[in-house]
Design a protein that fits this description.
7-stranded antiparallel beta sheet; alpha+beta
């Protein structure tokens, strides 16, 4: 009996201890946090002047004898404004990041706006009326915009936190102007990290904190009241929150905001290569121990070419940091300083080599003309050889003309592809041009046959091909057993 009482006492203490730990892990109320950060959150109203309709379009056909009648009818009912423009308004959110009036929001909130007005949270020490805002700079790639207002007194503001410390399961709070209802707060957890939607620089935090239309540009807070994300998008079949929201990670936003504040635009590093991911087949064909890095498919004129980077190189390290895949390399280069000379380690022909590359500016490169040759079409009949599930032939002048392949391109044209082969599964089609095999140029069928034999003698299970289609190169590894 005594032992049973002792056991019950121990069990009761354990339950009380677990309740205490749970209470410590989750605050009883988010009100103190909300009161502290809400004065820095703003509502954003944008106004755009839209051209009016020039006539009763959609009601009667142009030139109809009833046209004048319907125009007069519309004018009497206030619907016929002729050529007069009308004003269209939209709502969004944002947050103050400095006492002198800098405000962060989404680019899509203010894009194309003629007027931008900021409404502050109705709290102590905040402006009592709408303030006009000017656009300091925008970055469509990350959907971030930086605004500025002139306030009569220093504004309350919030700080950015380190988004890399946000863990899946951590509590977060979203604040903004959902559906135009005014200041509103929702809470949830970090559901996932490092989400990519559509951009090269995407690094989204996924959260189930309710985010709806009008929340765009608002902050995502951690429990310390620091901004770890900018609420940007939702995934929903209905257009409303279903618990899948995305906030651009603060560590991405901070770098963009710093550049917008200093230059009024972004200045991202540019390496000047076309790349693709290295899968297991490519790694085996190249001789890499495991799939890693970014495989260079083409090197147009630019910093990389000047530094000696070659098509077929695998970039395994950039500026002292390992390169996991193409996405990580794009972000690493984009975050690097324009004009900086960096060490780029490439894997080439079984060994690594370190190159020094002076980075250009991506925005300048994107505005420049493309020097990539264009080629398309289907290959005509020709003397052919069947290898690896492919029927190939040497490029002739007639084929170059029909394929629109430049005189500087040498290789073998793919005439047909066996639809049951691995080559077909990996996307090779008639009209593609093979320019390299085993990282060596091929100009004849015998070159390709030699590369196949060399790979087999070296114990390789697959052969790496560099294939061009429509001027765009990519590497494909084909199984030698085909």
């Amino acid at each position: 009996m005594t032992m049973r009482l002792i056991w019950l006492a121990v069990l009761s203490m354990a339950v009380l201890l677990m309740q205490a730990v749970t209470a410590m892990a989750r605050p009883e109320s988010l009100a103190p946090l909300a009161e502290r950060v809400s004065p820095s959150v703003v509502n954003i109203t944008t106004t755009t002047v839209v051209e009016g309709r020039t006539g009763p379009q959609g009601i009667v056909p142009e030139g109809s004898p009833f046209e004048d009648f319907f125009r007069e009818f519309q004018d009497r009912n206030g619907n016929g404004n002729g050529n007069r423009p009308r004003r269209s308004s939209a709502l969004g959110s944002g947050f103050v990041i400095s006492e002198d009036g800098y405000i962060v929001t989404n680019n899509h909130v203010i894009d194309g706006a003629d007027e931008i007005e900021i409404e502050f949270f109705p709290g102590e020490g905040q402006p009592k009326k709408l303030l006009p805002a000017e656009v300091i700079g925008t970055d469509p790639n990350t959907d971030i915009a930086l605004l500025k207002v002139k306030a009569p007194a220093p504004l309350k503001f919030v700080k950015f936190g380190d988004s890399d410390t946000a863990r899946v399961g951590d509590w977060v709070v979203a604040m903004g102007n959902p559906l135009g209802q005014g200041f509103s707060l929702s809470a949830g957890i970090v559901s996932a990290r490092n989400r990519e939607l559509s951009g090269s620089y995407d690094d989204y935090i996924q959260t189930d904190a309710a985010i709806n239309r009008g929340n765009s540009g608002g902050p995502l807070f951690n429990m310390d009241g620091d901004v770890v994300g900018v609420n940007t998008a939702i995934l929903s079949p209905t257009g409303g929150s279903i618990g899948i929201g995305f906030s651009m990670a603060s560590n991405v936003v901070v770098r963009v905001v710093e550049q917008l504040k200093e230059f009024g635009e972004t200045r991202r590093g540019w390496l000047g290569v076309k790349i693709q991911d290295v899968d297991a087949d490519l790694a085996e064909a190249i001789g890499l121990e495991k799939a890693r890095g970014a495989l260079v498919t083409d090197v147009p004129e630019g910093p990389a070419k000047e530094a000696g980077v070659l098509a077929g190189d695998v970039i395994v390290s950039f500026d002292g940091a390992d390169v996991r895949d193409t996405r990580s390399l794009v972000r690493q280069v984009g975050n690097a300083e324009v004009g900086k000379t960096v060490r780029v380690v490439v894997y080439r022909e079984g060994k690594t080599e370190t190159l020094r590359v002076t980075l250009g500016r991506r925005e300048d490169a994107e505005r420049g003309p493309s020097s990539v040759p264009d080629g398309s079409g289907d290959a005509p009949g020709s003397t052919e050889k069947e290898l690896l599930g492919l029927s190939v032939g040497v490029l002739t002048e007639q084929m170059r003309s029909e394929l629109n392949v430049g005189e500087d391109v040498e290789g073998l044209a793919i005439l047909s592809v066996d639809e049951t082969s691995e080559a077909w599964e990996k996307g090779l089609r008639a009209g593609d041009v093979i320019t390299e095999a085993g990282q060596q140029k091929v100009t004849s069928i015998s070159d390709l046959e030699a590369r196949v034999e060399e790979a087999k003698e070296a114990g390789r299970k697959s052969l790496l091909l560099l294939v061009r289609r429509g001027g765009e190169p990519r590497f494909v590894a084909l199984n030698l057993a085909e």
